[in-house]
Amino acid sequence: MNNVLVIGSGGREHALCWRLKQSPSVREVFCSPGNGGIGEDATCVTLRSTQDIIHFCGEHKISLVVIGPEQPLVEGLADELAEKGIPVFGPGKQAAALEGSKGFMKNICAKYHIPTAAYGYFTALSEAKAFLKDKKYPLVVKADGLAAGKGVIIAQNQKEAEEALSGMFAGQFGDSGKSVVIEEFLVGEEVSYFALCDGETAIEFGYAQDHKRVFDGDEGPNTGGMGAYSPAPIMTPPLREIVMQTIILPTVRGMKKEGIPFRGVLFAGLMITADGPMLLEYNARFGDPETQVLMARFNADLFEALLACSKSKADGGGLDKVKISFRDEAALCVVMAAKGYPGTYEKNTMIRGTEHANALDDVKVFHAGTELKDEKLLSNGGRVLGVTAIGHTIAAAQAKAYQGVNAIDWPEGFCRRDIGWRAIKMA
Ligand code: AMP
Ligand code: GLY
User: Fold this and answer.
1) DSSP string computed for 194-211
2) What's residue 427's pLDDT?
3) How much distance in Å is there from the Cα of 271 to the middle of ligand 1?
4) C-alpha 288 to ligand 2 mean position (Å)
5) Which atom of ligand 2 is nearest the CA belonging to 287?
6) How far lies 1's CA from each of 26, 29, 272, in Å?
7) Widest Cα–Cα separation across the chain
8) What are the φ/ψ torsions at residue 76 (nearest 5 degrees)?
9) Cys bridge to 262: 95, 196, 270, 406, which one at CB 3.0-4.6 A?
């Protein structure tokens, strides 16, 4: 039997803990730091440093550490744990650069012929501005490094592009904007595609669509994601095969050739264009809220699948023998956020009724930004809950998820009322 430690505090980590706990070979799941709801499914602990994590792993005989968010991956937490012989799910610092540096990701794409938008990469404002002349608009300007989802600006004309560049080089996103990618604007439908990787090969790990805009009808500013559903009807079996053969496998093989094998989950943000699927971005971690719907449908041993990625074949790991499957039913997640998000919002507001939502058939409330104080559930962030449901169709899952939402009493919160609309319209 195995003990697992999950690092993170979001809805993604709650969903991973919930599924890991159901693995037949798992005894106990710990989560650091966790949140006000993860305690329902795991033991929350607060580990403040890498040293604390290493010590905890020894003390509690941890068989696998699962790193949820990008920041610790890009900072090299996986390398530090692996050096101590602790099996870890998530890539090392160099491989995590697929997410941490858009320039690095685009160079890998260029070198290994992976379909992506045409681009230029610049480290000086003057050169970047010179590149803008005679270009077709809109054009996409991206800060090279991590910018919490805010470092991408779609410029409608040269003036907007110049302003975006000036902001980035002036330090609007800190060091993340000291180099930039300028790329062609792609038209199509966006899909989140996931693949588990063991450094040599990859297997598909589901796909989903999320709603990035804050308001109904996909209006308003971008957010971390206001809801998601899976499967995404646009992803036909032939299209999935094209993604695996032209995007995922060339990346995994290319990274191995570079001497920086990628182990963990590759989350490809895809644009399904008229010319086929193109890569918008890579993330080196699971998506949030996509993971909530993937875990609702996941139907295999999550611990075994994640552990297999942590070691090379030579060390007894590898995905060759791993079998995963997903339930045929659809899953849909509605994010409940604090009023004002993604701008300023209040914290410490009281949430009631999550137990009523959880008592509904096929509904599970994943916590993102919550905190338990004196047995009261309080909001503690922008995206606060992910009410997730399964059903025979996306419409059925949607109806149940909103039943769950309606059972929750949180006057200071709001959610979109149309999650899944595109898929339901297609059906
Ligand atoms: P990224 O962080 O690179 O995924 O960009 C954030 C969002 O910006 C994506 O989810 C897209 O909606 C949009 N985006 C990024 N790159 C492009 C592109 N080349 N063409 C059109 N939209 C894009
Ligand atoms: N939902 C998008 C992300 O996790 O980056």
Assistant:
1) EEEEESS-EEEEEEEEE-
2) 75
3) 8
4) 5
5) 4
6) 5, 11, 42
7) 62
8) 95, 20
9) 95
Is the CB of residue 139 less than 8 Å from the CB of residue 155?
yes
Ligand 1, from 280, 282, 290: best to mutate by most atoms within 8 Å of Cβ? Answer: 280
- Asked if 188 and 273 touch (Cβ cutoff 8 Å), the reply is yes
Q: Nearest ligand, CA of residue 283?
A: 2
Domains in the chain, CATH or no CATH each: 2-90 (3.40.50.20), 118-184 (3.30.1490.20), 189-315 (3.30.470.20), 330-426 (3.90.600.10)
**Ligand 2 centroid – CA 213 distance (Å):** 12
| Distance separating alpha carbons of residues 296 and 330, to the nearest angstrom | 9
Which residue of 282, 283, 291, 292 sits with most ligand 2 atoms within 8 Å of its CB, as the best mutation to test the pocket?
283
Measured CA to CA, the distance from residue 75 to residue 96 in angstroms comes to 9
Residue nearest (by alpha carbon) to ligand 2 atom 5? 287
**Residue 57, H or E segment:** helix 50-59
Substitution candidate for ligand 2 out of 288, 292, 335 with most atoms within 8 A of CB:
288
What is the distance between the alpha carbons of residues 324 and 301, in angstroms, rounded to a whole number?
Answer: 7
How confident is the model over 128-183, as pLDDT tens digits?
Answer: 999 998 899 999 999 998 877 778 999 999 999 999 999 999 888 877 768 999 99
Distance CA 253, CA 241 (A): 16
Is the pLDDT at 210 greater than 90, yes or no?
yes
Q: Is the pLDDT of residue 382 over 90?
A: yes
Residue 374: count other Cβ atoms within 10 Å of its Cβ.
5
Token pair, residue 306, equals 């994640």
With beta carbons less than 8 A apart as the criterion, state whether 350 and 376 touch.
yes
Q: What is the DSSP letter of 417?
A: S
**Tokens standing for 399?**
């109806």
State the Cα–Cα distance between residues 388 and 408, nearest whole angstrom. 13
The mean pLDDT value for 249-259 works out to 98
User: In Å, how far are 24, 118, 329 from 133, measured between CA atoms?
Assistant: 59, 15, 50
